[in-house]
Design brief:
The protein has 104 residues and is of the alpha+beta class. It is built from four helices and four strands, in the order βαββαβαα. It comes from Fictibacillus fluitans.
């Protein structure tokens, strides 16, 4: 279940994914299978070869690509999420979300 996500952010992410871009979307998240994960970053791209190659660079397996609702993506959580966002210069997404969460 997703929280803290603006409709415009989701639409921008979907559009970028559809256009074959590597797109990042970070939001609050709850799934009882992962009780310690409070956020998730979805890294998507409709070009599966491009997404697979990108993921391989971070040790992610092709089998981990989620094809939910026609938007192929990797789900990043925890330490791996932080490491990849740092390396991709996207850590501000997670920091902004965490700051927002502390103010609630």
């Amino acid at each position: 279940m997703a929280f803290g996500l603006q409709r415009e952010e989701l639409q921008r992410w979907k559009s970028a994914v559809e256009n074959g871009e590597i797109a990042f979307l970070t939001h609050f998240w709850y799934d009882p299978r992962f009780p310690d994960a409070k956020t998730v970053t979805k890294v998507g791209c409709s070009d599966l070869d491009k997404l697979e190659k990108w993921g391989r660079g971070y040790g992610l397996k092709k089998d981990w690509i989620d094809h939910h609702n026609g938007y192929p993506h990797f789900d990043l959580m925890g330490t791996r999420q932080q490491e990849i966002l740092n390396r991709e210069n996207k850590i501000e997404q997670l920091e902004k979300l965490m700051k927002k969460g502390r103010n609630r």
